[in-house]
Write a structure and sequence with these properties.
Structural class: mainly alpha
Distance between the termini: 17 Å
Low-confidence stretches: none
Strand content: under 5%
Largest sheet: 2 strands, antiparallel
Radius of gyration: 12 Å
Mean pLDDT: 92
Strand order of the largest sheet: 1-2
């Protein structure tokens, strides 16, 4: 379950997640391209996130759940502990 914010209070967190995604090499820069690439390469072609959900995370409208953060860490090729620490620093 994600936490819905009244506004974009977590914009800094969203920008951080977006920077991690955009920093990946040889992966499409669009959200949908990223999702499809990661689905094929990391999640055995299973649906793991929607484009709308990723957009809500990146805009700061929603905060990922713990399970969502674990999946994002895999998709973004970062250590889970690192991602958790960075999220805690930025969450409001």
């Amino acid at each position: 379950m994600t936490t819905r914010q009244k506004s974009t209070e977590n914009r800094e967190l969203g920008q951080f997640l977006k920077q991690l995604r955009k920093g990946l090499k040889d992966i499409p820069t669009s959200r949908m391209g990223f999702i499809e690439d990661r689905s094929a390469k990391r999640f055995n072609n299973e649906e793991w996130i929607s484009e709308k959900t990723l957009g809500n995370y990146e805009s700061g409208k929603n905060v990922p759940s713990l399970k969502g953060l674990v999946m994002l860490a895999v998709a973004l090729e970062v250590d889970k502990e690192y991602l958790f620490e960075e999220v805690v620093k930025r969450i409001k």
